[in-house]
C-alpha cells in the first residue's frame, strides 16, 4: 500500500488565504492512503469519505477512494439540473431569457434569496440557473425543475451513463408535496465517480454546445460556498485565487460535499463526498469541513501541481 503523508498548518493557510478561522488550531496531520473500499476515516473523518481525482486533459483517474458509494446528493444534484436545462436551450426547447413567474407556493426554505422576495417576480431562466448554483437557491432550483422536468433530468443521467445519480423531486418541500419515494425517506442521490465524470465531460465540452458550456462553467466559477475545495488554494497578494475553479458544494446535517474543476498547472477534476459528520454546525469552522478542506488542498497539491507521470497508486 502506497502512502503519502503531509502536514498542512492552519496558521500557514491563514497567512496564504486570509481565513481568520483557520489560525486558532494546532497543525493536523493528513495521511492519504490507498485503502480498501468501505474503510472509514480519510483525513480523520468520523464517517465516510469518497474521493475521485481525474486529469482534465487525459481523463486519467489519478486517485480514487470508495468512488461508487451512494450519498445523499444534497445540492450537488444542481449540476445535473444545470446541464439538463442548458441541453434544452441547445435544442431550442428553452431560452435563457424566458421569464418564469415565481408564485407564492414556489418559495421554500434552505439556502437562497428568492424565498425572501415577493411573489410575482419573473427572473430569467439564466437568473434562475445562476441563483441555483452561485448561492444554491432552493426556490430557484425548484423553478428550474418545473421548467425542465424530473424525467428529463433522469433521462439525461441515464444517457450519460451516470447510473449512481438520480433526481427524485423538488427540494425542501413539505411531506404532502413530496413524491412517494421522498415520503418513504429516499433522497436525491449521487456518487463521487458520477460527479467527477459529469464535470469532466462538461469542462471538455462533451455535453453542451460551446456557448452553453461557457455559460455553465461561468456560473460554476462564481459559486460562493468556498469552505472546502477552494479554501486553501493559493492566492495572490490581493487575495485572488491563482487558478480558476468551477465548483459546487452540497450540505446536509452531517453531509459535506464539494466537487469541481481546478485549472491548476495540471488541471484536475476533484470530487470529495462525505457523510456521518458529527459536528452539526453549518459554519466554516465545522470540524469535518476543516478536515475535508485540508484533504482537498493536499489532493490538489499532490496531483494538480504534479507532472503527468504521477500514477493512481504512486507518489511523485
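Sequence proposed for the structure above (316 residues):
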Amino acid at each position: 500500500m502506497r502512502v503519502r503523508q503531509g502536514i498542512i498548518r492552519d496558521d500557514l493557510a491563514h497567512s496564504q488565504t486570509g481565513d481568520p478561522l483557520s489560525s486558532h488550531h494546532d497543525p493536523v496531520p493528513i495521511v492519504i492512503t490507498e485503502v480498501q473500499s468501505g474503510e472509514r476515516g480519510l483525513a480523520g473523518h468520523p464517517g465516510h469519505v469518497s474521493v475521485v481525482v481525474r486529469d482534465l486533459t487525459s481523463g486519467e483517474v489519478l486517485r480514487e477512494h470508495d468512488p461508487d458509494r451512494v450519498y445523499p446528493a444534497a445540492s450537488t444534484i444542481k449540476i445535473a439540473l444545470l446541464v439538463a436545462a442548458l441541453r434544452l436551450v441547445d435544442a431550442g426547447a428553452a431560452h435563457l431569457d424566458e421569464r418564469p413567474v415565481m408564485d407564492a407556493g414556489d418559495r421554500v426554505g434552505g439556502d437562497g434569496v428568492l424565498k425572501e422576495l415577493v411573489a410575482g417576480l419573473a427572473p430569467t431562466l439564466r437568473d434562475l440557473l445562476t441563483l441555483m448554483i452561485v448561492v444554491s437557491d432552493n426556490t430557484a432550483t425548484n423553478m428550474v425543475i418545473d421548467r425542465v422536468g424530473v424525467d428529463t433530468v433522469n433521462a439525461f443521467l441515464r444517457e450519460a451513463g451516470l447510473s449512481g445519480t438520480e433526481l427524485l423531486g423538488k427540494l425542501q418541500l413539505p411531506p404532502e408535496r413530496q413524491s412517494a419515494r421522498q415520503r418513504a425517506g429516499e433522497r436525491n442521490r449521487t456518487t463521487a465517480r458520477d460527479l467527477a465524470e459529469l464535470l469532466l465531460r462538461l469542462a471538455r465540452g462533451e455535453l453542451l454546445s460551446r456557448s452553453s458550456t461557457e455559460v455553465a462553467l461561468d456560473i460554476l466559477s462564481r459559486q460562493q460556498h468556498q469552505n472546502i475545495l477552494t479554501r486553501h488554494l493559493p492566492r495572490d497578494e490581493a487575495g485572488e485565487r491563482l487558478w480558476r475553479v468551477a465548483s459546487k458544494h452540497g450540505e446536509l446535517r452531517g453531509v459535506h460535499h464539494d466537487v469541481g474543476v481546478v485549472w491548476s498547472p495540471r488541471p484536475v477534476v476533484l470530487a470529495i463526498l462525505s457523510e456521518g459528520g458529527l459536528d452539526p454546525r453549518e459554519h466554516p469552522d465545522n470540524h469535518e469541513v476543516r478536515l475535508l478542506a485540508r484533504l482537498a488542498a493536499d489532493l490538489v497539491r499532490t496531483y494538480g501541481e504534479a507532472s503527468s507521470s504521477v500514477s493512481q497508486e504512486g507518489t511523485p
